[in-house]
Amino acid sequence: MEIRDLCKRQRYAFPDFTGCLSFQPGQGKEYNVFHNPSGSPDDVFTRFQLLADAHIHITRENCRAMLDHMDSLGIDRALLMAFDEESAEVNFDLAREHPQRFLADCNVSSTPFGRLESRLYSYKERGAAGLGEFMVNRRIDDPYIRRVFAICQELELPVTFHMSPEAGYSYGIVDDAGLPLLEDALRRFPRLILIGHSQSFWIEFSADVPHEREGRNSWGCGPVAREGRVFQLMDEYENLWCDLSAGSGSCAIMRDHDRGLDFIHRFSDRLLFATDMTGPDMVFPLHDYLADCLAEGELSQAEADRIFHGNFERLFGKIQRPEQ
After folding, report:
1. pLDDT reported for residue 319
2. CB count in 10 Å sphere of residue 283
3. Contact assessment for residue 116 and residue 66, using Cβ atoms and an 8 Å cutoff
4. Which of 232, 222, 253 is nearest to 186 (CA)?
5. pLDDT band at 39; cut points 50, 70, 90
6. Separation of CA 43 from chain center
7. SS3 annotation, 211-279
């Protein structure tokens, strides 16, 4: 989850803001990264098919409001992200109360090394769909991270990770510029699906990656002169998937219209629509952007179906449209 921290750094009021940043791909429509809708939410997301959100944060306190917000945006089912063991328990409760709307991800952050196996096996038995948002602030080659990955591979639990550029800075599992540790993990755990998310992952969409930690913890902007490591790793490792949520995922796809479309054409079978919403006043631009690409014939219906719901169903289970 990157939004609240980002808005604090940029000194935007959270959550009462409109259009922190925007993209204008080509000529015409402007897409706001954040939008606090003053009119009908139906004007923001066009409801024309099943829609799954693979990355959302919901609490007991805002669950009813978030369900109403999901309805207004046309989101049929969502994967609940956990920050830690405590929020994982909330996820299980909400998924049990609303089984058609929510699936629960689990998480470990304070579980001792020796108890990781029993904890994760218990989560699996209780119906965990995956592990995420995994953000333990250690290097990916740390024994703790490798142990979590090994167990999740055995249990067939996909891992959605948040990445940090440096241990002790921000939050998330840590890799160097160029993502060498992620590549090692993809090779070391070939049956584990790792789902990339956050700034330090998506900044590698372009080859011109900053090397200082603040730059690596940003979204990136402007044309993509050369394909970055995200392209290369997606080409080489079938167990790498991408979560298109938040400003980082939206920016990667939208910053360079042609490169973004090329990425989708090549990898639409491993891309997951997601938002990273934490409250009912948040909306992200990518759905409308992709819907426009579909309407213009730049995106096929099959590609849109895979991104909006098909890949989610392959990983996590079938979706049914809720009764209105």
Report:
1. 79
2. 21
3. no
4. 232
5. very low
6. 23
7. CCHHHHCCCCCCCCCCECHHHHHHHHCCCEEEECCHHHHHHHHHCCHHHHHHHHHHHHHHEECCCCECC
Residue whose entry in the numeric block shows the structure tokens 């590549």: 183
Which tens digits make up the pLDDT trace of 167-178? 999 999 999 999
Q: Do 160 and 243 contact (CB within 8 A), yes or no?
A: yes
Whether residue 174 contacts residue 140, with contact meaning beta carbons closer than 8 Å, is answered with yes
pLDDT(43) > 60 = no
The predicted pLDDT at position 136 comes to 97
189 token code pair: 């755990």
196 pLDDT band, cuts 50/70/90, is very high
Q: pLDDT, tens digit, for every residue of 221-246?
A: 899 989 999 999 999 999 999 999 99
Q: Which amino acid is at 56?
A: I
Q: How far apart are the first and last CA of the chain?
A: 30
Structure tokens at 106: 């689990």
In whole angstroms, what is the distance from residue 175 CA to residue 181 CA? 6
pTM strictly above 0.85: yes
Task: For residues 249 and 244, give the distance between their C-alpha atoms in angstroms, rounded to a whole number.
Answer: 4
| pLDDT at residue 18 tops 50 | no
Mean pLDDT of 188-208: 97
Distance CA 194, CA 132 (A): 10
50-316: CATH class: alpha beta
